[in-house]
Amino acid sequence: MARNIQEKINKRGQEHIASLQATVHQLWAKCCEAEGIPADSKFVVFSDDNKFKPFYDQALKQLWHAHVDYAAGGYVGLTIPRKTSI
Asked: How many domains is the chain partitioned into structurally?
């Protein structure tokens, strides 16, 4: 039973990461479009006044944290505050 629960947790984590990856990809395309840069470019620098940049930066940060959490074996999306007792 514990293995089944772990498999469900892993699947949810993978789905969450895939969703974040899709969001980052879409925001990358929007940022590139706003700059007049082809979305298939390998390296770009977005202007500070690009209206999509803050959203892209936040989505990328969330994706990075999700990867770190998943690699550490934790449940992606679950945050437990310090000094919390059960």
From this structure: 1
